[in-house]
């Protein structure tokens, strides 16, 4: 019986070691309003409204163009709206560049921001991953 317990423990440890760990980066999000074209990545191509502009933190010399990010609000950045988060997440496509001086890690379209937070907050803390 002792061998069975040890085998069970070894299988459990191996399973834990092989389970992928989801990694989410943290940052801030703001939003911008239409028109969304032209964009730095796609010119006058209409990419819909679930889009974002990347700051220098993720822009990577245009390599961010076309990347899809899942973004979730984690809380307020100020006391203006104490509980801005909706509890939802949104998937956005990077189509633009938020130039130096950008107020956030990722600048979401107004529509994408509204999915995850109250737009009256203006700026929120987020978790995001590709």
Automatic annotation (TrEMBL):
Subcellular location: Secreted
InterPro entries registered for this protein in UniProt: EGC1/2, Expansin/allergen_DPBB_dom, RlpA-like_DPBB, RlpA-like_sf
GO CC aspect terms: apoplast
Keywords associated with the record: Secreted, Signal
Predominant subcellular localization, coarse grouping: secreted
Signal peptide: 1-24
Domain Expansin-like EG45: 27-130
The UniProt record lists the keyword Secreted: yes
SUPFAM superfamilies, A to Z: Barwin-like endoglucanases
GO BP annotations listed: systemic acquired resistance
Entries under SMART domains matching the protein: DPBB_1
Domain of life: Eukaryota
CDD domains, per database record: DPBB_EG45-like
Entries under Pfam families matching the protein: DPBB_1 (PF03330)
Protein name according to UniProt: Expansin-like EG45 domain-containing protein
Organism: Rhododendron williamsianum
């Amino acid at each position: 019986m002792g061998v069975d317990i040890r085998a069970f423990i070894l299988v459990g440890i191996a399973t834990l070691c092989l389970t992928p760990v989801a990694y989410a980066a943290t940052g801030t999000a703001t939003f911008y309003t239409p028109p969304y074209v032209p964009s730095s990545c796609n010119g006058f191509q209409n990419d819909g409204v679930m889009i974002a502009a990347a700051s220098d933190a993720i822009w990577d010399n245009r390599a961010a163009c076309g990347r899809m990010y899942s973004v979730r609000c984690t809380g307020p950045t100020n006391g203006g709206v104490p509980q801005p988060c909706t509890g939802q997440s949104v998937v956005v496509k990077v189509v633009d560049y938020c130039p130096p001086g950008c107020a956030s890690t990722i600048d979401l379209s107004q529509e994408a921001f509204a999915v995850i937070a109250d737009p009256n907050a203006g700026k929120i803390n987020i978790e995001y991953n590709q």
